[in-house]
Amino acid sequence: MLGLPGKYREVVVLYYYQDCSTAEIAQALDLPQGTVSIRLKRARERLKPTLKEWYYAVWTSAYARTLS
Predict the structure, then answer these.
(1) What dotted CATH number matches 6-67?
(2) Fewer CB within 10 Å: C terminus or N terminus of the chain?
(3) What predicted TM-score, i.e. pTM, was given to this entire model?
(4) CA torsion sign, 55 to 45 to 6 to 11?
(5) What residues does the RNA polymerase sigma factor 70 region 4 type domain cover (predicted)?
(6) CA torsion angle for 29, 31, 32, 34 (degrees, to 10)?
């Protein structure tokens, strides 16, 4: 999350952590709603590889514990 550029990070925080709708974010940041949607999409695309690595590490760690 910290690796995201600020313009992506702010919409992610508002959408996922503050539970704001894209319309509310657009109004708060004085942006078109389409811009907010695109920024969320691009942020997800940038986070996807990191989240996959994290999920894999957590899953393999949990699986290894069940075998021991």
Answers:
(1) 1.10.10.10
(2) C
(3) 0.73
(4) negative
(5) 3-47
(6) -80
Distance in angstroms (rounded) separating the CA atoms of residues 24 and 26: 5
Distance in angstroms (rounded) separating the CA atoms of residues 62 and 42: 30
The mean pLDDT values, 10 residues at a time, for the chain of 68 residues are 86 96 98 98 90 68 69
Residues 13/24, Cβ–Cβ less than 8 Å: no
Q: How far is CA 6 from CA 3, 12, 57, in A?
A: 9, 10, 27
CB-based contact 26:35 (threshold 8 Å): yes
SS3 18: coil
Identify the three-state secondary structure at position 4: coil
Amino acid at 63: Y
Helix H or strand E encompassing 48: helix 33-67
